[in-house]
Amino acid sequence: MRIDYGERIPNNVGLGDDRRLRRALESWQPRFLGWWQDLGPEGFQDVDVYLRTAVSVEPGGWAHFGHVKMLDYRWGIFLTVPEKDRQIGFGEDKGLPVWTQVPGEHRADLRRLIVTQGDTEPASVEQQRLLGRTAPSLYDLRNLFQVNVEEGRHLWAMVYLLQAYFGRDGRDEADMILERHAGDPDRPRILGAFNELTPDWLAFYMFTYFTDRDGKYQLASLAESAFDPLARTCRFMLTEEAHHMFVGESGVKRVVQRTAELMRDQDTVDVRPFGGIDLGTIQRYINFHYSVSLDLFGGERSTNAAAYYNAGLKGRYNETKINDDHLLSETFQLVPEWRDGAPTMADVPAINALNECLRQDFVRDCARGLARWNTVLEEHAIITRLSLPHIAFNRRIGNFADYHVTPEGVPLDEEQWAEQCHEWLPSDKDKAFVSSLMQPVTERGKIAGWIAPPPRGIDGLPFDYEYVRLF
Ligand SMILES: [Fe+2]
Ligand SMILES: [Fe+2]
Fold first, then answer.
1. Which residues are in the CB-under-5-Å shell of ion ligand 2?
2. Could you point out which of 3, 155, 244, 435 has its C-alpha 20 to 30 Å from the C-alpha of 281?
3. Longest CA pairwise span in the chain (Å)
4. How far apart are CA 319 and CA 34, in angstroms?
5. 315 CA distance to ligand 2 centroid (A)?
């Protein structure tokens, strides 16, 4: 199933045969490009970047690499190949054929799910738009831009669904996604974590590790949807998303490695005078980005999530691989809650705990990267370990929104929290220090002093390849 690059909008959905849809998307395209120029990566619109472009949607061998200007990137609409005789995998319609159109009774809910997902895609590009100015190497600069163009393509993916399946209001929603902006006081992005600026590269790696991983779980649960075009879109998006999380995981790992080298060579935990980021600061960044990403999953008990599941709109992570009735009529799930002044666990009907179920999969996944980062510390004979804070730490949404705990989960009153939270979350001083390290390194093969070089380059090329041609 090759992608047609002869079209103005590359696609594998037969856009050439659908005049109405093609015209709708072609009239949206200049608005997208205008948005990219105004709010995409600042200062790098004219440089050649070594980017990968999808050429096929078959698993494996789908990418083509080459130098392109970002504005010339071939954003388009790519869905995975339809699965023959695919059936609805869960909920009340389990076992029936999947839908190729939107059923009237689920129209509003599906639209809301697609708009919420679609809104996050351009948001992260906006949040990261200034980072190009302070990249630690050409390799990292290229990775940032790869993530950015792919988030742009994810927006195309969601806008295609809105325009192809939701008529007039779908077109309006597609326009509104370009009118809301990250951090805009009047028209902010829908979800809280997508309104903060990503101020420095440590925050960027944390964002791609934790927040893009939330995206992975949301996409994976939509990839189970009975609405087949949504499922197929999300399946292809997941292949791109994997690279974003690689950028995050390997980025943090390289920061940890550099810190560990400095600790060993200088025989001190205080690596700041030597231009490294101390482990305390790295831990505080983890605490912040992890806790805000936990909030993105929503409340622990959710009747909306139950309704989406019953209707077949949004499943669990790897729904089809789970061995149960896929109805959740008699199962229970342990959910964290606040009782008698402290966090504890309670058994609730699994159908009401689907947000929490997805969040717990996410937590387990997050822990894997932490283990890899800690291996670096171990290899350098450092006894400190990085960790994920308690599930109730620094939460704004759900059962813990009104309470405070330490990263270990010990309850605190308001006053104690106000006194001590700067020990656990990045302080203004931490951010100013990290920001002072953010000096651009644009010479081939060179890298900033606060991060280790990657063990290998992109697409089999060496680290000192000219991934971005600046002049
Ligand atoms: Fe995305
Ligand atoms: Fe992403």
1. 212, 241, 244
2. 244
3. 68
4. 39
5. 20
- Which-ligand-closest: CA of 120? 1
List, for residues 265-294, the tens digit of each pLDDT value. Answer: 999 999 999 999 999 999 999 999 999 999
Task: Render pLDDT for 241-267 as a digit per residue (tens, 0 to 9).
Answer: 999 999 999 999 999 999 999 999 999
CA dihedral 299, 301, 304, 308 (to 10 degrees): 110
**What domains sit in the chain, N to C, each tagged with a CATH number?**
15-469 (1.10.620.20)
Closest listed ligand to the CA of 246: 2
413 burial (CB, 10 Å; 0-12 / 13-18 / 19+) is: exposed
Cα–ligand 1 centroid distance for 154 (angstroms): 5
The structure tokens 């992890």 sit at 290
**34 Cβ partners below 8 Å, 6+ apart?**
none
Q: Whose CA is closest to 177, among 165, 164, 166, 187? A: 187
C-alpha of residue 152 to centroid of ligand 2, in Å: 10
Q: Give me the count of residues in the chain.
A: 471
Question: Could you give the angle at which helices 107-127 and 212-222 cross, rounded to 10 degrees?
Answer: 160
